[in-house]
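User: Predict the structure for this protein chain, please.
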Amino acid sequence: MTTYDVIVIGSGHNGLICGTYLARAGLRVAAVERRLEMGGGLCTEDVTLPGFSHNLHSFFHRWVPELPFYNDLELGSLAVRYILPPAQSAQPMSDGSCLIWHTDLDKTLKSIAHYSRKDAATYRELLLHYREMGAEILVPEMYSPPLAPAEKTALLERTPLGREYLALTRRTPRDLVLEFFESEAMRALVLFLVTVKGFLVDEPGLGYVFPSSITGGTKGSMCRGGSHNLAHGLAKAFVRAGGDIWEVCNVRRVLVEGGEARGVELDDGQRLMATRCVAAGVDPAQLYGELVPEEHLTPELRERARRWEFGPLGILFSTHLALNEAPRHRAAAHDPDIDRALNYNIGYESVEDFDVQWDEIQRGLPPRKPGMQCAVPTLHDATQAPAGKHTLFTWQYVPYELADGGAARWDEVAAEYAEVCLDRWRQYAPNINGKNILGRYTYTPLDIERKMRNMKKGDFHSGALTRAQMLEGRPHRTPIPRLYLCGAGSHPHGLICGAAGYNAAGVILDDLGMKPWWPRIDARRHWEQMAKR
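Assistant: Here is the predicted structure, written as structure tokens:
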């Protein structure tokens, strides 16, 4: 039997972030990982041909390296480097034109003005205004434990900006897109940036995703060498802080004694004890439905595990290609930067396109006219392929359960549906074909679930981003003393923002009566001070 102060279940990026903050606070911490590889969705592998590195899960790391964990944990000193391409979000259109958001605001406005001068002016105004809202409200809320709704409302109602934010939260992303923009091209690109993060465009209470999509649409970055390099850096930071990593060790159950979490038991029967707490980087359904013994669950916790929802967005079918040459888009005649973009919206050209796809997904059908998030990583980082060659991927939202055979049917239709997705991109870039394709690999929602225990049904958020499962619906504290949630199933959600692990570490130190060593973000204090200005 081995004893630590804190045991973290899982070494996904949030688990490593939480563990490193706690280890640097002076606690002895162990991270227990089921797989041989650390980092969870920070997964980069040569799945097509040797030398072609493919990012199977996370790739678009928005706002890194500006995020708190990157600087607090000094990842720059561990050779974790980021690339911010100038051409950010690009949308080719069937008429041969294209809409591109750049890091250069003037170039973005020129691109938008091709479709609507009014939309260009609106975008400029919203961007500057929402940057302030992001700094004052969105970032503090993301990097703080969620406040009770009544307290949050009372604090934000004290300022004009806060009142505006509260009004936005009562709307849906679609409402706001239709209100502010008139061109279908602009509406489609903004809704694309909403949905690629896993948010439903018609979900009441999620209107705040609209401003974050406006400001985040030109903040897409990628990790040099592949997303797994961030995992390496986080693991090095954890070990440098004194943490231990137990690899290929599956946690069978959480040990609960005297009504409190006291450690974990592994598949081989070995017990790791925790004198202070256990932090689980899993979703609530897995924690309460599989890891905590049933005799320690209240009826409320059993019900929470049963009712925790996965999907419907956040479930992806992906195709990865090794290419001889990069895609050449027809729209390059309109704007050559289309061939150098980071984040491609392939197939969504109107609000109606989202409606058609959503209807098909709800009926258990893979969309026959895909609208995908795509990238060509090697346009910006040549280290991810042999000299002069390229990699490409497509991400298409799909149902986990197919209408004609359930989830198991994916094993039979994967190759066929990959061709449907590639055909869609060929309508905009015809050279993704023939001898240009050197190798291919398909990755279905069923494959994701098999590989990533914490992505049930292939859901990369570890739970649907409905209003009921956001903010206070994703707490870090559990009803079992000394047991915490620190992964994507806790506030705020998945994606590579590190906020769930960051927040969990702060909550744990609060409960232990220890002061944080880092300049911790505190939404309550920030909003109180904002009201006094």
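The first strand starts at residue 2 and ends at 9.
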